[in-house]
Design brief:
alpha+beta
């Protein structure tokens, strides 16, 4: 009776330990799920990195300096040509009737035809405006690139988190398997011994050998002809169960090793993504980046789904081409005015000393002479060629504008399609993840009392793992599509 009581006590203890492992497994399982859901409710810090990108991004700074350089061309082309000053000194004074000339000074200022400078300033101002649109596009591109790398960083970090959670789940299942194998096999053998001893004590039959105890069926006698066969037959709980249990444990360890190798690869990839992110904000490549673990689900407003062509046509690249066309028109007007003469006004001053041989009343008086000069644009071929050049440039710019507009419209509809596909996949994988999660919960609860192996649990765990990764990928693709649409419609609108 003591042996039977100890058997039941051991069996109850094994069941309690098994249920404790199952409860711990479920608790850790739900904690990981709640953490993954709560992480999206926190606020991210991507706006902080936007400000750094605008201030420090090398491409943005390059376009900013190019814009300031273009502004400096406006006063250059709007200024008059430099005046010309000519000076001459006679080594031997030139004898004149009114004295001896010893030096000559001449000052001349050329004036382009009316309107040339005005149209030149208009051309450079419009080109500066085109540079400003390039600056806005560079800012939008920098923000867009920063978002893409941010999303990639989120994807890598979430993949690491999901993989680590899956490794923890595998190790817990491994412990549960070892417990089930240990107490299940020992309890079956120990229980048979106890039952055999108790029946032998009642005088019904001698106690069977340990190897034949599981086949005694309550302690009945075994014939001598069956002893050898019974003794040689393997125990179903001691042989098949042990080999199956060890095989399950080895399989779990293989899967855990593969996941740990994947985690190491992902951590190396994280360092590469971090270097790309820091390069966009011009920081040391190994600087830490926080907040990338958070990525809320971005839903496009219905207004974005019906964007008019007028909104898309306000793209900085299209505006840049419009300013380019306007600058060509101003240049054409300037060339028209350049076909007229340039007028020069000047002053000539002769220094004359007195001569002893002259009796003129103007003896020794300096001479001042106003001057007028004019260019004669009689070679018209170069002006005609300049006009033809402008016409060809205008045609090329118009064709470039149309090609750019078509490309932007195509990109907009492509981004909408990517958003729709990613949003659909998000919903699908969320439903699939919930189903796999519920299925895994049921399998874990019934694992301790089931005689089946870990095949179903392993397959369901892998399904849950895959759906979580696919859900992260779909969320990343959805946010990338939204970022692409925001770039096309200039949201947020870059300002300086």
């Amino acid at each position: 009776m003591k042996t039977t009581s100890s058997y039941f006590a051991t069996h109850c203890l094994a069941l309690m330990r098994t249920k404790y492992i199952v409860v711990s497994l479920l608790i850790s399982f739900y904690v990981n799920i709640s953490q993954s859901n709560a992480i999206y409710s926190q606020s991210d810090s991507l706006v902080y990195y936007f400000d750094l990108a605008i201030k420090n991004n090398p491409s943005v700074l390059q376009k900013l300096n190019e814009y300031h350089a273009a502004l400096q061309k406006v006063p250059q082309v709007g200024a008059l040509p430099d005046p010309q000053l000519e000076m001459g000194i006679f080594l031997t004074p030139m004898e004149l009737m009114s004295g001896n000339q010893v030096a000559e000074f001449k000052l001349m200022q050329m004036f382009p035809w009316f309107g040339v400078l005005k149209h030149a300033k208009d051309e450079m101002a419009l080109m500066a405006n085109a540079k400003y649109e390039l600056l806005k596009d560079s800012k939008l591109q920098a923000l867009y690139d920063l978002k893409l790398v941010w999303f990639d960083l989120y994807k890598v970090r979430q993949s690491i988190r999901i993989s680590e959670k899956s490794v923890g789940l595998l190790k817990t299942i491994e412990q549960l398997t070892l417990l089930k194998f240990k107490y299940g096999s020992s309890n079956s053998v120990g229980g048979s011994r106890s039952l055999a001893q108790s029946s032998g004590g009642m005088g019904t039959a001698p106690a069977p050998a340990p190897t034949t105890a599981m086949n005694a069926m309550g302690g009945g006698s075994v014939s001598s002809s069956n002893k050898s066969s019974v003794a040689s037959s393997p125990s179903p709980m001691g042989g098949a169960s042990s080999s199956t249990g060890l095989s399950d444990v080895y399989q779990i360890q293989i899967e855990a090793g593969n996941l740990e190798n994947t985690i190491s690869t992902l951590k190396n990839e994280e360092q590469i993504v971090l270097a790309r992110f820091n390069s966009l904000i011009n920081r040391p490549l190994k600087s830490a980046v926080g907040g990338a673990e958070i990525l809320p689900t971005t839903i496009l407003d219905s207004a974005y789904l019906t964007i008019s062509e007028a909104v898309i046509d306000k793209s900085p690249m299209l505006r840049m081409l419009q300013y380019e066309q306007q600058s060509l028109n101003a240049r054409k007007k300037m060339i028209d005015k350049m076909g007229y003469p340039m007028v020069g006004l000047g002053l000539k001053y002769n220094v004359i000393n007195k001569s002893d041989m002259s009796s003129s009343p103007m003896n020794g008086s300096d001479m001042i002479m106003p001057m007028l000069t004019m260019t004669l644009p009689i070679y018209r071929k170069k002006y005609n060629a300049m006009q033809s050049e402008i016409n060809y440039s205008k045609t090329a710019s118009e064709q470039n504008y149309q090609a750019m507009a078509n490309n932007i419209h195509t990109s907009y509809y492509e981004a909408l399609q990517l958003y729709s596909d990613a949003h659909r996949r998000m919903i699908l994988y969320e439903n699939q993840r919930q189903l796999a999660e519920k299925s895994l919960e049921i399998l874990i609860k019934t694992f301790s009392s089931s005689n089946s192996g870990l095949t179903d649990i392993s397959r369901t765990r892998q399904q849950l793992f895959d759906y979580e990764l696919k859900q992260v990928e779909a969320l990343t693709d959805c946010n990338k599509a939204v970022a692409w649409i925001h770039k096309i419609i200039q949201f947020p609108n870059p300002s300086f």
